[in-house]
Amino acid sequence: MAKCAVCGKGVHFGKNVSHSHKKTNRMWKPNIRRVHCKVNGTPKRLYVCASCLRSGKVERA
Prior knowledge:
Order of helices and strands: EEEEH
Largest sheet: 2 strands, antiparallel
Helix content: under 10%
Number of domains: 1
Distance between the termini: 22 Å
Strand order of the largest sheet: 1-2
Radius of gyration: 16 Å
Number of helices: 1
């Protein structure tokens, strides 16, 4: 679910690295917001990342 409907930004995977250099899995999630947007003139509810909202790629309804 954590995927932007505009740019397709999703989760990224990597490792936690402790002080003893032991590595465990982790993930980074994008800042996804559920917003009312205008799509082809009709209002729709989309999941959009905060960077797309700030840059004006989405017209809010």
